[in-house]
């Protein structure tokens, strides 16, 4: 019996509700996964992440490869034991982080050499080493090594896409563990012909799931939404679809509207560390003087621990006093907002009410507070 299975539970238009079974539990989709770059969701304990409703977390192959190293993590029982998270974990391939090092990396057909941001030493990642590292980290879902190009450069997007395809095949050949699901990644910038070619090529390789990479990196919202729709019209219906690195409420709704199942993003915790709260009527800057005596929670309709216990006035005090608790409480709220949004969208799909929910919620987001 395979360690993984995908069930499409319901559809409403292009929106999908599904169940993806992994060795560490089931994912009920649509799902938003918090990012734990260095085997930790910043400012939160694993218990807090679980209490706010997260079904899965991400860890970063590039960062863990550099520190503390995959051998150490493997020797301590893999990521689940190391970080004390007994639900599904996804690791990225390291590709996006490596390719963001534009001044210190060198790409060739075999892989990428780059300078460590920690100690300046020269490191090397290839499709084979990325898979080896991810197998030792031990996540449930692992990603093929890909190249993320500037989305508006056609010639380079085509080159990076074809390299991504060659590397995807090598990742499949390098994979040895049966208890990890390897997802292929569709690239091609914002160009319809390249994205269609990539979606067909990656789909034909037989991955148990597929990701859409190279978006939310500077292109327009219109281009991003069009690209998602075009790719998902080609990707198989019977496998999960993961939109990488996208994390605003609007983008989650528009992504689900176009057939996305899985999302992740650093944005909720990053905003929290910069004193901002996500709400379903836009963002609040908790440094704003207008909140100094505001007894209301961030969002009166929110069920998170922060909103159930604390006022905007108290949060503003923590922010101005530069207390660590500010980032914790705002991270709890921001992550809960997206995790709960995904749960609400799933319920709307199961009730055949998604499009009405999407229209009302998007209008509410545009209205602001």
What does this structure look like?
- This protein is α/β, with parallel strands linked by helices.
- The protein has a single domain, classed as Queuine tRNA-ribosyltransferase-like (TIM Barrel), CATH 3.20.20.105.
- It has 15 helices and 16 strands.
- The strands form 4 sheets. It has an 8-stranded parallel beta sheet with strand order 4-14-13-12-11-10-6-5. A 3-stranded antiparallel beta sheet has the order 1-2-3.
- Strand 10, helix 7 and strand 11 form a beta-alpha-beta unit.
- Helix 6 packs across helix 7, helix 8 packs parallel to helix 9 and helix 10 packs antiparallel against helix 15.
- The termini are far apart.
- The model has no long low-confidence stretch (mean pLDDT 96).
């Amino acid at each position: 019996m395979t360690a993984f299975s995908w069930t499409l539970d319901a559809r409403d238009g292009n929106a999908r509700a599904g169940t993806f079974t992994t060795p560490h539990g089931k994912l009920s989709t649509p799902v938003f996964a918090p990012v734990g770059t260095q085997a930790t969701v910043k400012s939160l304990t694993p218990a807090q992440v679980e209490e706010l409703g997260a079904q899965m977390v991400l860890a970063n192959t590039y960062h863990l490869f550099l520190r503390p190293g995959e051998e150490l993590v493997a020797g301590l029982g893999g990521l689940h034991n190391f970080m004390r998270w007994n639900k599904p974990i996804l690791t990225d391939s390291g590709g996006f982080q490596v390719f963001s090092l534009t001044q210190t990396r060198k790409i060739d057909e075999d892989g990428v050499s780059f300078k460590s941001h920690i100690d300046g030493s020269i490191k090397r990642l290839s499709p084979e080493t990325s898979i080896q590292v991810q197998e030792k980290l031990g996540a449930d879902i692992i990603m093929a090594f890909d190249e993320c190009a500037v989305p508006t450069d056609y010639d380079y997007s085509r080159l990076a896409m074809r390299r991504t395809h060659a590397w995807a095949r090598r990742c499949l050949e390098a994979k040895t563990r049966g208890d990890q699901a390897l997802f292929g990644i569709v690239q091609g910038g914002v160009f319809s012909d390249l994205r269609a070619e990539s979606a067909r090529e990656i789909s034909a390789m037989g991955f148990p799931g597929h990701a859409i990479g190279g978006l939310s990196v500077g292109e327009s919202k219109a281009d991003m939404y069009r690209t998602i729709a075009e790719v998902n019209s080609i990707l198989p219906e019977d496998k999960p679809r993961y939109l990488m690195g996208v994390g605003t409420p609007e983008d989650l709704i528009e992504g689900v509207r176009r057939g996305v199942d899985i999302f992740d993003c650093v944005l909720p915790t990053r905003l929290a560390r910069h004193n901002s709260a996500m709400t379903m009527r836009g963002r609040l800057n908790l440094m704003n003087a207008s909140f100094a005596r505001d007894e209301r929670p961030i969002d009166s309709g929110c069920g998170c621990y922060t909103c159930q216990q604390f006022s905007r006035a108290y949060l503003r005090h923590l922010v101005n006093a530069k207390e660590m608790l500010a980032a914790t409480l705002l991270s709890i709220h921001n992550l809960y907002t997206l995790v709960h949004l995904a749960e609400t969208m799933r319920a709307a799909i199961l009730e055949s009410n998604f499009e009405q929910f999407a229209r009302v919620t998007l209008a509410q987001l545009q209205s602001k507070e």
